[in-house]
Amino acid sequence: MSSALIETAKDKFGKLMEDQLKRVERMKQDTEWIDYSKLNPIIIGICWGDGIGEFISKQAQRVLEYILKTEVARGKIVFRDIKGLTIENRVKHMKAIPEDVLNELKACHVILKGPTTTPQVGDPWPNIESANVAMRRELDLFANVRPVRIPQDGIDWCFFRENTEGAYVLGSKGFDVSEDLSVDFKVITEQGAERIVRMAFEYAKKNQIDRMTVITKSNVVKTTDGRFSKVAFRIAKEYPNIKIDEWYIDIMTAKLIDPARRREFKVMVMPNLYGDILTDEAAQLQGGVGTAGSANIGKHWSMFEAIHGSAPRMVKEGRAQYADPCSMIRASAMLLRHIGHQPEAEKVEMALEVCGVYEKKMTITGRETGVTGKEYSDYVLSWVDNPRLKERWETGGRAVCV
Ligand code: IPM
Ligand code: MG
Q1: Helix axes 342-353, 389-400, angle to 10 degrees
Q2: From the CB of 242, is ligand 1 less than 6 Å away?
Q3: Does any ligand 1 atom lie closer than 6 A to the CB of residue 132?
Q4: Which atom of ligand 1 sits closest to the CA of residue 130?
Q5: Which of 225, 236, 245, 322 keeps 20 to 30 A from 36, CA to CA?
Q6: Nearest atom within ligand 1 for CA of residue 163
């Protein structure tokens, strides 16, 4: 009996490893990066998402349309509406991303994506894979970049979360070996670790940051996290002006809330699941997950999204219009920066900070005690082209940073 179970498990494991070895080969061959400066037009696909997704994506789209109006009029930027990434359509096809939707996504250069529902055990939906995780894998979006800034506390963090491996890589391919025994897998490859670590170091170098923190649990998860850490220290030798140190994920979650130490951290690089957890914590410190945006960068495509989910509870309670659109607006600013529109990205980021940190004329509470997402977006838009924007932002920044 048990030997038959073991044979089946071995067989499944063998197939998974075959796929992973093929993925390693693909990573080795994949050296070219897309060059946005050579594209005309740049196609921006917008997926609206589920739950509050549609509400907040609409606001982000308004900001993008406003700030890119000249480029759109000149035909240099094209927006494309991608409708099929809803939970209903995904369930209809019983796929994380239906084939035709995936082709539509691949026909774009960058994607703005609203939060999508991730089914879980016990949901009314069948337990299909998360659309986020599938998209990250299918488009090989290996770097999840999540900035968190709390200027009034001198905090300016940038998290580089590995986005295609770790505990997520085989997330939907774990299996029950017997009635009593379940296994999932965690995978780290040399190539997968190297590309995210390198990106984090390049970011630090470009921004004259002299500190890199690698976050693992390599004292316990010795093989996979051990490899991640070894790769980080190997790459660090190429950046002698950047000091690297390793922190374990448990103490790191504590240090993020340690007022005496937390502002020392600048750029952090880590495997997938640790990044998932740590960035929610960091975002909460910034003002809530609704304030944090995220870039999913790959060599051929990139996708920009909120760091949070579709908040079905808010929709059920009739509060969707009060959802915070800042996460998606921030993601849009990251998109602008990524396709080469730095000045526009800066304006949006400064406007978000003037509204949310310095001026604070309006507040979002997620219910009728605050303003709606549309009202807040109008507030942000009113600052984007305000001639006093930079001055207001700098004054705020200088006054509070120590
Ligand atoms: C995130 C989200 C996703 C993740 C979920 C929705 C699958 O929490 O982007 O952090 O775990 O990566
Ligand atoms: Mg998360």
Answers
A1: 60
A2: no
A3: yes
A4: 7
A5: 236
A6: 12
Distance 306 CA to ligand 2 centre (A): 9
Q: Name the CA radius of gyration of the chain, rounded.
A: 21
C-beta 118 within 6 A of ligand 1:
yes
Q: How far apart are CA 191 and CA 198, in angstroms?
A: 10
pLDDT string in tens for the chain (402-residue length):
689 999 999 999 999 999 999 999 999 999 999 999 999 999 999 999 999 999 999 999 999 999 999 999 999 999 999 999 999 999 999 999 999 999 999 999 999 999 999 888 888 888 888 899 999 999 999 999 999 999 889 999 999 999 999 998 876 788 999 999 999 999 999 999 999 999 999 999 999 999 999 999 999 999 999 999 999 999 999 999 999 999 999 999 999 999 999 999 999 999 999 999 999 999 999 999 999 999 999 999 999 999 999 999 999 999 999 999 999 999 999 999 999 999 999 999 999 999 999 999 999 999 999 999 999 999 999 999 999 999 999 876 544 333
Kindly report the CATH class assigned to 151-287. alpha beta
- Among protein residues, the one whose CA lies closest to atom 4 of ligand 1: 276
Is pTM beyond 0.70? Reply is yes
Which atom of ligand 1 is nearest the CA belonging to 133?
A: 7
Cα 144 from Cα 298, distance rounded (Å): 9
Same fold yes or no, 32-141+298-402 and 151-287: yes
Give yes or no for residue 56 CB within 6 A of ligand 1: no
Distance 383 CA to ligand 1 centre (A): 31
Minimal-distance CA residue to ligand 1 atom 10: 276
Class of domain 32-141+298-402 (CATH, top level): alpha beta
Among the atoms of ligand 1, which is closest to the Cα of residue 132?
A: 7
CA-nearest residue for atom 9, ligand 1, is 307
Convert 231-265 to b/e letters by CB count within 10 Å (16 or more is b).
Answer: bbeebbeebeebebebbbbeebbeebeeeeebbeb
Q: Which residue, chain included where needed, has tokens 């976050």?
A: 215
Distance CA 74, CA 96 (A): 36
Taken as a whole, the chain contains a residue count of 402
Q: How far, in Å, from the CA of 132 to the mean position of ligand 1? A: 7
Domain map (residue ranges) of the chain: 32-141+298-402, 151-287
| CA 343 – CA 70 distance, rounded (Å) | 14
Shortest-distance Cα residue to atom 1 of ligand 1? 307
